Amino acid sequence: MTLKLVLPKGRINTKVIQLMKDMGITLVGDDRNYRPRAYGFDLEVKLLKSQNIPSLVELGQHDIGFAGQDWIYERRCEVEVIKELGFDPVRIVACIPEEWDWQEVKQRKVIVASEYKRIATDYLDRNGFDYQLLRSYGATEVFPPEDADMIIDNTSTGTTIRANRLKIVDKVMDSSTQFIANPQVLKDPGKRQDIEDLLTVMQAVLNGRERVLLEMNCSNQAIEQIVNLLPAMRSPTVSRLYNEEGFAIKAAVPKKDIQGLLPALISAGATDILETPINKSI
């Protein structure tokens, strides 16, 4: 049963496409092709702007898709978030010119520019602003000070905000890439099973990215100390070395622990250490 998948163009596209590649799904088409062919899973794929994806998944035009949490909230879409991926995290922030006083700005009527009509309105109403909202369509950061007193925009590093002589005065919300589905599609047993199969492989890839496989040898005397050092998924795999005393050890270890773990293993007597990437882990 073919699943209709909609993928984002633009900023979050790169990591989503790499995820699919790591899942064994190949997309064939050039940069101008909005309908690439998918090989490796029964998918009908279309590329659209991230802003449009939540609404189209909600309407059932597509079964599943990837979109930012900001646009799901902005569109007020009834979609099922089936996996929070955390790709391309951004903050939605309120900014004013760098030399202005934030407390003074909050006391007067302000013109606010934003691509996010609903997110901005909710924030401004919640904080009691007297405001006029000006809808922007890109390059929001250039509006102040001549055309707006404040902007509400997304940022990952703050570089563009600082380059335009603005400062962040408040955080409105956090956002990152979500894997979403149409709620009605999840009631179809066949399509739900396909989505769950896709999610299983996706989770295996994400698990694999967090760990590496460590292999090493050690003497009889060092085995207990080394095993106690290894943070394996369950417990390390230990086997006797062929035709000699000592052990071979394997363990799937979190990448974040490697820098401190390797010196400790060497000090404990580990030798012949190999580190191998893990493509998938279930």
Describe the structure.
Strand 8, helix 5 (117-126) and strand 9 (131-135) form a beta-alpha-beta unit. The protein is 29% helix and 34% strand. The strands form four sheets. It has a five-stranded mixed β-sheet, sandwiched between helices. It has helices at 13-22, 53-59, 69-75, 102-105, 117-126, 159-163, 189-209, 223-229, 258-268; strands spanning 3-9, 26-28, 37-39, 43-49, 64-68, 80-84, 90-97, 110-114, 131-135, 150-155, 166-175, 177-181, 211-218, 237-240, 247-254, 271-277. The two termini are 25 Å apart. The chain has 282 residues and is of the alpha/beta class. The protein contains nine helices and 16 strands. The mean pLDDT is 94. The chain has three domains: 3-86 and 177-208, D-Maltodextrin-Binding Protein, domain 2 (3-Layer(aba) Sandwich); 90-174, Periplasmic binding protein-like II (D-Maltodextrin-Binding Protein, domain 2), CATH 3.40.190.10; 211-277, 2-Layer Sandwich (Alpha-Beta Plaits), CATH 3.30.70.120.
How is the secondary structure organized here?
Layout: E1 3-9, H1 13-22, E2 26-28, E3 37-39, E4 43-49, H2 53-59, E5 64-68, H3 69-75, E6 80-84, E7 90-97, H4 102-105, E8 110-114, H5 117-126, E9 131-135, E10 150-155, H6 159-163, E11 166-175, E12 177-181, H7 189-209, E13 211-218, H8 223-229, E14 237-240, E15 247-254, H9 258-268, E16 271-277
Parallel strand pairs: 1-4, 1-5, 8-9, 8-10
Antiparallel strand pairs: 2-3, 5-12, 6-12, 7-10, 7-11, 13-15, 13-16, 14-15
The helix-strand sequence is EHEEEHEHEEHEHEEHEEHEHEEHE
Strand ordering within the main sheet: 4-1-5-12-6
CATH topology name of the largest domain, in short, is D-Maltodextrin-Binding Protein, domain 2
In percent terms, what proportion of residues is strand? 25-35%
Main β-sheet: number of strands, strand sense, barrel status? 5 strands, mixed
